[in-house]
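User: Hi! I'm a student and our assignment asks us to look at how structure tokens line up with a sequence. Could you show me two examples?

Assistant: Happy to help. In each example below, the sequence comes first and the structure tokens follow. Example one:
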Amino acid sequence: MKNWLVCGVVALALFPSAHAQFSGASPVELSEARVTMMSPTMQVAGTVVSRSDAVLSAEVEGRLIEVAEVGTRVEAGDTIARIEDTGLRLRAQELAAEINRAEARLRFLEAELIRFERLAETNLAAVSQIEQTRSERDVATSDLAVVRSRLGQLEDQLGRTRIAAPFPGIVVERLAQAGERVGAGNRVVRLVNPDSLEVVARAPLNYFRYVQPGDELGVRVGAEELVSPVRTVVSVGDESRHVFELRLDMAERLPVGQTVRVTIPTADVREVLAVPRDALVLRGDGIAVFIIDEDNTARRIRVTTGIGAGEWIEVSGPIQAGDKVVIRGNERLRAGQEVMVQG
């Protein structure tokens, strides 16, 4: 009999949790009620968009001979599509030949003008010949400038037969296929940069003054909660839609077009007493919180909830900042029950 009692005492000394369970103590985890700054909020729908999203069009007429495949990643300046340039190159060669001929005539007229001016010094050349030659020289100079300008315009068109990426990105859509003939302004490809993202959301104009550039707002993507800074706020509404637009920088890699929920404040920030949401116990007689007193017994108090922010929620009732509240193990807890604090 003595051996049995000794073994029981040793077991209780080595395994206090077993002693707590035997004595009716319930294992719980605690947090503290605290005073914090909060404001009432609401959620509005938002969409993830790329800050660099462009549909690239042809700038000259011709037949497409090359278009990048969908999914091709390119850097700024890389060729995405090319238009046949044979006719333009032949015309450029023709203009180059015209420039050579115009330059040759201009050299001849300048030499003639110098010769006539020397003869005029000995009265062997008429003034009319000098004036005529000078006029022809000036006309030849203008003609040469016109041809050079035409060649410059043609070289510019030759450069535009190559559709280049204005920014790094991915080809997400081909709007024309190789072999098709396109005109100036016809859409060819859509290019999107998936690494430069932002969230575009619209909220009622009534709450415009509570959102400022630089504010950090919660962005919910499915079950995940992110925080993103407001880049800009556009305070423009119209008669049919009384909303303003806000854009938030998005550092996380999300698919373009992803729907999100943006949490915005709907009133000024104020000081509140808050507890973790897990501390709330919802039963038939209302919402309650279990507070653990110094003797490790549970005390159940009724509370009224208010605004929330993330995992914390405002409460009012017979509770003070610093009170220890149960956040785990409160589902079956009873008032006056002894508890064993874990964690």
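Example two works the same way, sequence first and then tokens:
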Amino acid sequence: MNYEAVIGLEVHVQIKTHSKVFTRVAAGYGQPANTLTDPVVLALPGTLPVMNKAALDAAIKAGLLLNAAIAPVCKWDRKNYFYPDSPKNYQISQYDQPICVGGAVEIELPGPARNVMGAHRLVPLTRIHLEEDVGKLHHSATESLVDYNRAGTPLLEIVSEPEMHSAEEAFAYLTSLRATMIYGGISDCDMEKGQLRCDANISIRPVGETKLGTKVELKNLNSISFVRDGIDLEIKRQVAVLERGGVLIQETRDYDGQTGTSQSLRSKEMAHDYRYFPDPDLMPVKVDAAWQERLRAECPELPLAKQRRFAERYQLPYTLTSVLVWQRALADYFEETVRLAGLDQAQVVGNWIVNDLLRELAAPAAPGLAEAKVRPSHLAALVQLVGSGAVRAHAAKEIFTEMFATGESPEAIADRRGLKAAPTDAGELEQWCRAAIAGNAKAQAEFRAGKDSAINAFKGPVMKAAKGRADPPRVDAMLRQLLAGP
């Protein structure tokens, strides 16, 4: 029997705020254990929560970025459960009146080839709600310790509809959602720091069936690649269970990305198990149109919209747009360089950034883009030097490498190192070309027999003789002229 997978994702995104969601204590990462706490975080008797407006702003902005409906009124609920990471023994969350309802994440599915754009579609969302994060447990062989530094950090839970059907779709969804949250300044989404965490709900059903199968929740998916791998493993596991006549149970499973295995943790809870009820210490919040419009004005252009604009305005191929748009800083770097170098140089600029700048940035101990010494003005000046013929392409590569290391201007590097192209005397060029042709009788015969690519065998010796100063188009023209003669 053929089966179809049905996948929904619950993504938790830590909001980037200075303080926690219901208290003024600092939010952060990497501090000594249990130092980012106060009586509210630790739930000491007599403490009361106070709403952090910056967290609400971020939640509303996230909803606007994802085209969700912003609730005119949202309220706070207590989600009751007993676990050491929750000092109150309940979590302040939102149940029946979340801040955002609906919306969608645009995804791009893998194309038929790596350099070809894939299909785009919208994955609908159920809701986005705001809640407080819990602490973190640290387990050893003999004891478990709890660190409450993370407890109380503002957290968005973004819940998709169960409308993905493959691990690749889930991968594309998380890639797009993560970029959206970073672009909007909602979160840094560093999965290693727990700033983005994902649980996947997976079921299978016979192809053509509309009723959902038994749902299994997969947890501990701490990288986007592990989400893809874990979902793929779970789909295969469920198919194998049914094909051998077994029965699937609703459960939560832990996925180990290092070993590529999963194991059952517990039976899956239902909503009523948490005994939600309205929090008596927090008033409902009204969100008016003016509040929404203020935040809408701050919403940036998103990556896939930017990809379409780059292709149309700058005539860039997919091989460039698919790299440039996923980091907002990189896309901004590209557009600033094009503004300085000229619109007609857009593809040249794109190639420099994708092939040369990113290569240097990927080297061990290299700075990030924000700290890189090569600014858009440097790259634009280099592109203009090459375009004017003042610097040859091979010399430009040397200049770029030094420019990246020192931050010196390309003009200064070219002058200091003698890398500017000097005008080549026509007689001198002809002499170099004749010598190259005379030195390779085989390539000479192949070219005259119709093999056009054989001309390339002469160009290296000519450029060597010219010490890189010869203009490649002039070299090509002179070689063809001489080879066409007797």
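Here is something you could point out in your write-up. The mean pLDDT is 92.
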